[in-house]
C-alpha cells in the first residue's frame, strides 16, 4: 500500500495541473476573442466614421460639382443673348403701310403689282410646269418665286416680324425700325401729282414719330426704315411740280434716320442693300446644293447682256454693248427686254447660268436688279462704273473687287476703244474658276430667305447682315453722342458716285 501512495499523488497532481492549464487556455481564448471582438468593433466604428466622412465629402463634392454644372446653365439663363441686339418696331397707323398696298394696282404706273403681293411679298411660287423650268431652277425645293424688285420693304417687314430679338419694350431696344412703305408711297404719286400730294404722308409720319417717347432717346438717329426704290426718289431738290420724287429725306426728322434702299446717293445716312432675287431658300443645305450646281455648270456663252437699249438716255453705253454682243460671233447672248418677258425667272436664270460673264451697265440709275440675279446664277459680273456695285453694296461685296468681278471703265466703252470679246476672252480658265468660286460665296449674303425659318440650319442672309450693320452703326453714333462729338458731319457728308474711281 505504501508503494502506491506516491504514484497516486503524482496522478492527482498531474490531473490538477492539466485542469489548470485547460482552464487557462479557455480563459485565454475567451480573452483573445473578446479582444478581437472589441478590436473589430473599434475598427468598424472608425471605418463607419471614415465611411461617413467619405460619404459627406463625396456628397459635398457632388453638390459642388452640381453647382458648377448648374452654373453655366444658370449663367446661360442670366446671359441675355439679345443684349445689344434688341429692335423695337413701331406699330404705325395702317395708312403708312398696309393701306398703301391694299390698292395695289396703281402703285406703279403701267405695271400691275397685285400678283406679286402674295407670300409675304415674295410673289407667286414658281411651279414645275415643264422640264426647262425644272432644269433651270431646281424647283423641287419650293424656294423659287416670281419676286418683284420693288417689294423689298414688304419682304423686310415680314422678316422683321420673325426677328429673334424683336421687343415690345422700347427701353431695351438698341435700334428702332419704322415699317413705312416709302417706296410705294412715292411711286403711286410720281406721275400726275403735285408736290403737296407727294410730300404729304412723309410729313405726317415725321410728326407722328416726333411725338413718340422713343424719338427723344437719340432724336431719330437710332431709327431706320427700308424702301424698295433708289434714294434719289426721296431727295427732290426743289419745290417744283416738274421735279422728280418727294422731299422725304430732306425733312429734319428723316435727315436723322437711316434709310436702307436698293441704291444710295452716298449720303452718310443711306446704305444700299441687295435687290430681291427669285431664290428664297429655307436652309443652308439648299444653298450649298445651289452653290455646287452653279460652280460646276458648263457655260455656252463667254458673256451675256439682259436688258433693253436706252436710245434716249444721254451717255448710255448700252448701245455699244448691244452692238458688240450682236457682232461677237456667238460669244455673247443678248436677251432684249423690249421684246422678251424679263420678269420671267426661268428666262433670266437660263441666260445667266449659260454665261461666264454678265454685263452690268448702268440703267435708269447706277444699279440694276440684274446684278444680283447674275451673281445668284454664278455668273461673274462686269461693271463699267464703281457706282453700280463697288461703292454701293459695301456691306455685301468683298473689298477686293477683282476677286469676283471685272471692271471696264465706262469711258472706254463709250468711245468704242474696248472689245468685250477680247478683254474677257483673255482671262484664263483658272482665273475664271477662282472668280466664280468667289461669286458663289456671295450668294448667301444677297438673298432673302423665307420669313420664319430658324434653327441651326438658318442662313445669315441679306436681312441679317443689314440688321447687324444697323446695330453697329447706331452703337457708333451713340458713342459719338456720349463723347460730345459733332454729328453734323456724319449726317451731312455726301459723295458724288459718278466721280468716284476704283482704287
Automatic annotation (TrEMBL):
Q: What name has this protein been given in UniProt?
A: Probable xyloglucan galactosyltransferase GT12
Q: What domain of life does the native source organism fall in?
A: Eukaryota
Say which species the protein is native to.
Answer: Camelina sativa (False flax)
Would I find Ubl conjugation among this entry's keywords? Answer: no
- What UniProt keywords apply to this chain's record, in alphabetical order? Glycoprotein, Glycosyltransferase, Golgi apparatus, Membrane, Signal-anchor, Transferase, Transmembrane, Transmembrane helix
Tell me which residues make up the Exostosin GT47 domain. Answer: 82-417
Parts of the chain that traverse the membrane: 7-26
Q: Which family does it belong to?
A: Belongs to the glycosyltransferase 47 family.
Gene encoding the protein: LOC104786306
Kindly indicate whether the keyword Magnesium belongs to this entry: no
* Bilayer topology annotation: Single-pass type II membrane protein
Q: Which GO terms describe its molecular function?
A: glycosyltransferase activity
Subcellular locations according to the entry? Golgi apparatus membrane
Give the main location: Golgi
Amino acid at each position: 500500500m505504501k508503494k502506491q501512495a506516491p504514484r497516486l499523488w503524482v496522478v492527482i497532481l498531474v490531473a490538477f495541473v492539466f485542469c489548470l492549464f485547460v482552464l487557462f487556455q479557455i480563459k485565454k481564448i475567451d480573452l483573445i476573442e473578446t479582444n478581437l471582438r472589441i478590436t473589430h468593433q473599434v475598427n468598424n466604428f472608425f471605418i463607419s466614421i471614415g465611411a461617413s466622412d467619405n460619404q459627406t465629402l463625396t456628397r459635398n463634392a457632388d453638390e459642388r460639382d452640381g453647382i458648377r454644372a448648374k452654373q453655366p446653365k444658370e449663367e446661360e439663363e442670366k446671359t441675355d443673348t439679345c443684349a445689344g441686339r434688341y429692335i423695337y418696331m413701331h406699330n404705325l397707323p395702317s395708312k403708312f403701310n398696309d393701306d398703301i398696298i391694299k390698292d395695289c394696282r396703281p402703285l406703279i404706273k403701267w405695271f400691275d403689282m397685285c400678283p406679286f403681293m402674295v407670300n409675304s411679298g415674295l410673289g407667286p411660287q414658281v411651279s414645275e410646269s415643264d422640264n426647262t423650268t425644272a432644269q433651270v431652277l431646281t424647283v423641287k425645293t419650293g424656294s423659287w418665286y416670281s419676286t418683284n424688285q420693288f417689294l423689298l420693304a414688304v419682304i423686310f417687314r415680314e422678316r422683321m416680324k420673325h426677328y429673334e430679338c424683336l421687343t415690345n419694350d422700347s427701353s431695351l431696344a438698341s435700334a428702332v425700325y419704322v415699317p413705312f412703305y416709302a417706296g410705294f408711297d412715292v411711286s403711286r404719286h410720281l406721275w400726275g401729282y403735285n408736290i403737296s400730294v407727294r410730300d404729304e404722308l412723309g410729313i405726317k409720319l415725321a410728326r407722328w414719330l416726333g411725338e413718340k417717347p422713343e424719338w427723344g432717346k437719340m432724336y431719330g438717329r437710332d431709327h431706320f426704315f427700308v424702301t424698295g426704290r433708289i434714294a434719289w426718289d426721296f431727295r427732290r431738290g426743289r419745290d417744283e411740280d416738274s421735279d422728280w420724287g418727294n422731299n422725304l429725306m430732306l425733312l429734319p426728322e428723316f435727315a436723322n434716320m437711316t434709310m436702307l434702299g436698293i441704291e444710295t446717293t452716298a449720303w452718310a445716312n443711306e446704305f444700299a442693300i441687295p435687290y430681291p432675287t427669285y431664290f428664297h431658300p429655307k436652309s443652308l443645305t439648299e444653298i450649298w446644293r445651289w452653290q455646287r450646281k452653279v460652280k460646276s455648270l458648263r457655260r455656252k456663252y463667254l458673256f451675256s447682256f439682259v436688258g433693253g437699249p436706252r436710245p434716249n438716255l444721254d451717255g448710255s453705253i448700252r448701245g455699244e454693248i448691244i452692238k458688240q454682243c450682236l457682232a461677237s460671233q456667238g460669244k455673247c447672248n443678248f436677251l432684249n427686254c423690249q421684246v422678251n418677258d424679263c420678269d420671267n425667272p426661268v428666262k433670266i436664270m437660263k441666260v445667266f447660268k449659260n454665261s461666264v460673264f454678265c454685263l452690268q451697265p448702268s440703267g435708269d440709275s447706277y444699279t440694276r436688279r440684274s446684278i444680283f440675279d447674275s451673281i445668284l446664277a454664278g455668273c461673274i459680273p462686269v461693271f463699267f462704273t464703281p457706282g453700280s456695285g463697288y461703292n454701293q453694296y459695301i456691306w455685301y461685296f468683298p473689298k477686293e473687287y477683282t476677286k469676283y468681278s471685272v471692271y471696264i471703265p465706262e469711258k472706254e466703252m463709250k468711245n468704242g476703244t474696248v472689245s468685250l470679246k477680247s478683254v474677257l476672252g483673255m482671262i484664263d480658265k483658272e482665273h475664271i474658276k477662282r472668280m466664280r468660286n468667289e461669286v458663289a460665296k456671295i450668294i448667301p449674303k444677297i438673298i432673302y430667305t423665307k420669313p420664319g425659318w430658324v434653327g441651326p440650319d438658318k442662313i445669315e442672309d441679306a436681312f441679317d447682315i443689314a440688321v447687324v450693320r444697323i446695330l453697329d452703326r447706331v452703337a457708333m453714333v451713340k458713342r459719338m453722342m456720349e463723347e460730345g462729338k459733332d454729328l453734323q458731319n456724319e449726317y451731312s457728308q455726301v459723295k458724288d458716285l459718278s466721280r468716284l474711281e476704283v482704287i
